[in-house]
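Progress note, sequence design subtask.
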């Protein structure tokens, strides 16, 4: 049995119920698991960068208190309308971006916001059909995928920035919860996820509205198929995460992330010193398309095979990644990040496909193609 690597600090999430989210280093590809008679949960992802920029935090301080409270949203999930006072831009095509959303006015009007970035052309969010329940309509458009101009933190795999056209699609407003995954398992269409150790959300009851974790790629695929969808492509994920913003470093803009929940730039990452799973939608606010937890939730699996050089040869129209590979792409690496680098919207990682590649901090959300 191989030992977990670099465990993070155990944290108290609610009275008398400890949830230790053990998220480890993103390590180099040479970090391989040794043979064992029984699989154990891995605590590391594979980082795409050459720099060893991800590490476990020092000390045992607690993170900033979650503004949303410890009990989390109801089992039915957070309100589809989002937090009180938030206008959802592009959510089911029913609202324009609020004046203080950070979305450039030209973006909201469906125009190219920056003449220096001609690859970006974001249509109006209401140009596509209303989304199914629990999902958001992503309008599609053309955007600059990869390293943002002037961002010196980018790894080589994020380069070159390249123009990508995305067709409209639907995407889950929140990460898939333990309750939703449990329904698939009860229907016999998904394997039961790990329920131990306490870091795993499956089968806990009180964690029904937390993101499902401790699952591997084929289990995420099985759930999305059962739910009538699929995993998003990496390009779809980044387009949606940007929320209509152009040339920004983070999903909310250029402001540095904060550990205080409930802010537009909220994200739980290593600076917060203690890592916890949080109920879906309880950390930050919705992005420009009405999506929650695109930064600072669980690390999210996407459909593409991983290649560090794919951007150099990527098709410009709805790319789906390499035709084969060893690992799959992982996005939103904030939960495993030592510094702001991992919170950036263009940051890429990779994860394996075996029982040894189930991570305490990894989950997913599903997409659907328009009819």
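Output:
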């Amino acid at each position: 049995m191989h030992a977990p690597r670099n465990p993070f600090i155990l944290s108290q999430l609610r009275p008398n119920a400890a949830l230790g989210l053990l998220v480890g280093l993103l390590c180099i590809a040479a970090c391989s698991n040794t043979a064992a008679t029984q699989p154990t949960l891995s605590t590391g992802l594979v980082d795409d960068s050459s720099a060893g920029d991800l590490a476990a935090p020092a000390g045992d301080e607690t993170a900033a208190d979650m503004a949303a409270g410890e009990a989390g949203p109801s089992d039915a999930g957070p309100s589809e309308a989002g937090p009180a006072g938030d206008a959802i831009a592009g959510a089911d095509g029913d609202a324009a971006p609020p004046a203080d959303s950070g979305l450039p006015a030209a973006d909201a009007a469906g125009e190219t916001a920056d003449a220096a970035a001609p690859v970006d052309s974001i249509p109006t969010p209401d140009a596509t059909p209303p989304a199914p329940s629990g999902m958001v309509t992503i309008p599609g458009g053309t955007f600059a995928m990869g390293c943002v101009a002037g961002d010196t933190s980018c790894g080589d795999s994020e380069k070159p920035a390249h123009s990508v056209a995305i067709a409209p699609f639907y995407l889950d407003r929140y990460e898939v919860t333990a309750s939703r995954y449990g329904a698939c398992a009860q229907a016999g269409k998904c394997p039961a996820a790990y329920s131990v150790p306490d870091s795993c959300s499956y089968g806990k009851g009180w964690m029904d509205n937390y993101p499902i974790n401790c699952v591997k790629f084929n289990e995420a695929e099985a759930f999305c198929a059962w739910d009538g969808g699929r995993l998003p492509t990496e390009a779809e994920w980044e387009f949606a995460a940007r929320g209509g913003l152009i040339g920004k470093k983070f999903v909310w803009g250029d402001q540095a992330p904060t550990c205080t929940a409930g802010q537009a730039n909220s994200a739980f990452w290593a600076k917060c010193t203690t890592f916890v799973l949080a109920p879906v939608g309880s950390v930050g606010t919705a992005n420009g398309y009405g999506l929650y937890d695109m930064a600072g939730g669980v690390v999210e699996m996407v459909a593409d095979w991983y290649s560090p050089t794919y951007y150099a040869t990527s098709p410009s129209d709805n790319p789906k990644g390499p035709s084969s590979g060893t690992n799959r792409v992982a996005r939103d690496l904030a939960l495993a990040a030592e510094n702001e680098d991992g919170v950036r919207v263009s940051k890429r990682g990779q994860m394996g496909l075996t029982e040894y590649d189930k991570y305490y901090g990894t989950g997913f959300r599903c997409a659907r193609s328009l009819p």
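Residues 217-226 form the longest helix (10 residues). Work on this subtask will continue into the next period as scheduled.
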